[in-house]
Amino acid sequence: MKALVVRLSSLGDIILTTSILPALKEAGFEVHFLTFKPFGEILREQPFVDGVIEVEKEKLRSFSDLRKFAGELPSFDVGFDLHDVLRTKLLRKFLPFKFYTYSKNALLRRLMVLFKPFKAKWLFVPELYATALKKAGIKVERPRPYLFVKEELKRRISQFLPEKPVIVAPGARWETKRYPLENFARVVEILKEKGFSPVVVGGKGEIELGRFLEKRGAVNLSGELSIMESVAAVSLSLGVISNDSAVVHMARAVKRPVVAIFGPTHPAFGFAPYPDEGLALTRNLPCSPCSPHGKTRCRDQKCFEIEPETVVDKLLSLIESR
What we know:
By secondary structure, this protein is α/β, with parallel strands linked by helices. It has helices at 11-17, 21-26, 63-72, 86-93, 106-114, 125-135, 151-158, 181-193, 207-214, 227-235, 246-253, 308-321; strands at 2-6, 30-36, 51-55, 78-81, 98-101, 165-169, 197-200, 219-220, 239-243, 258-261, 278-281.
């Protein structure tokens, strides 16, 4: 039996799909994963993925693109759409096998933005992904993201890391989702004062953030690592401090304690670490959350008035409790 799992983007969401892929493999399926480039990189080395189909986003823009691409896909027995957006809904129409979708609870997230009391009911994305398998009669117990990192890759990346490394991730897709850079600079300083070595990771669009923190004493690897190299760096660290971004889920997937800082978004949306994985820091203001994805016009950003000392203390408590 061959299964096609579809999640086109983004990086953090794809990492979270690994929480249910082992159960699919254990149920006897040959697991193949369809995603956008370059995200397939993190799935090719995973023991619970038999094949990765990677496609350029530009090649799936139109109705005819989707029909043509569907005709080029190999045959599968069943599909699991863990994205369930217009593009994947249309793609499913051209494929001759049954698809199961997950319970997105998108309406609940929007209600959290409009009616703040709804945020009292927290979602967890791994559990939502598990609903797709449940519809197919496959049980998923205690879903947690997991990424296998080869020892050879760890050895190579370890050469770039100082002793007692702590990963700091100041980036996020929207600038309004970023804990203030001056606060991150203070985080770097406090870590160094306490005998740790802060290491900055991030994509090519976050190089300037890394350079800023490098001036405060951090080792700057922003824009220098591939996705899996970043995962390897995280796996070799003592812990992680990150905005609400993919780096949080990298830490979860390699079992490193993580402090995730939430501002305009909220842990209740489903992207917070479980208590056994780390801690979500939020001021939980009456105006929070103000945006489903963190793109907001708010310039006060009182939601980010979290002391850097608090951020560091929370991570060190997690490290000491391991």
